[in-house]
Amino acid sequence: MNDSYSGKNGKVKVMYVRSEDNNDGRKDSGRHQDNDRRKNNRRPFGKGNEQGDRRRNSERPARSGDRSPWKTISRPEGEPPKLEHSGISGKSHIDPEQLRRQRLEETRIYGENACQAMFQNRPDAIVRAWFVQSVTPRFRDALKWMAANRKAYHVVDDEELAKASGTEHHGGVCFLIKKRNGLNAETYLQQAPAKDCVLALENVGNPHNLGAIMRSCAHFGVQGVILQDTAMLESGAAVRTAEGGAEHIKGIDADGFTTTLNQFRDEGYTIVTTSSHKGSTTLAQATLPEKMVLVLGQESDGLSDSTWEDGDIRLSIGGTGRVESLNVSVATGIVLAEWWRQNKV
């Protein structure tokens, strides 16, 4: 069906009424005519007109006879779109609970000595690795092993490695690893050696102090470290500062600090507390037992009064008195050196 009329300029305009039942070819002609009319009405310049066209098209209700496979759906402003399929829309979907568990189970360590020690002692715990080109010759064995065991690794520039590790002090390498779980006191005591010094840290949380402490522990043969949160022993900064010593340390969970100390006392350990503020036996005068738990306190205030008084031996490190106290990691090294001299040499 068609009709015609004359416009103001005298030209004859032809209109077609489109029908789904009409297969005589006129609907294709009508579609071309519509396209021509839209092109003639479009402004030649500027994005504003195109945006206006899109806005008008989005506001135009869908017609029952539209051949387009797309449809316009109006929804209140601010309401998220409702997907009619279960496919990917822009971003892949990751289960947030699974991601949270994964982050709790993994950590990033960095530093050349720390990562070399990690590879030598626990290669299976490595999940992914990043290297700068200059360190790859020294990690040749690690690279071969990761390639053979389908472990992902990346050779990147310094800026990308800083992003991957979260620090500029990465030492040219970063490993994403699976965390070790802390031991409970019972498990540690079952495998403890006859001569054994265990370290207990009350509210010590600075990662650089923890790293220096682990380094001293590894040097003087201390295996166990009691801590309220053993995960702190595997922070990137602590492991890097330990310079490989972290791989020789076992974290012991202390659900209750005093309760855990009593468990070791019941197994024959002497509890040795330290302070620079309270009267006590100086280290030079003390006889340190073969089995002991050395207890040190937080960086600012030292041990709490209750923990200090619970010690079987109470120690202080003699000095000039020109400074208030020693750094907790330095004090640890001094006392452990004396324990080693008396019991291991």
UniProtKB/TrEMBL annotation:
GO terms for cellular component: cytosol. One of its GO terms (molecular function) is RNA methyltransferase activity. InterPro entries: Alpha/beta_knot_MTases, Ribosomal_eL30-like_sf, rRNA_MeTrfase_TrmH, SpoU_MeTrfase, SpoU_subst-bd, tRNA_m1G_MTases_N, YfiF_prd. NCBIfam families: PRK10864.1. Keywords: Methyltransferase, Transferase. GO terms for biological process: methylation; RNA processing. This is Methyltransferase. The lineage of its organism: Bacteria, Pseudomonadati, Pseudomonadota, Gammaproteobacteria, Enterobacterales. It holds the Pfam family SpoU_methylase. The keyword Metal-binding does not apply. Residues 1-98 are annotated as: Disordered.
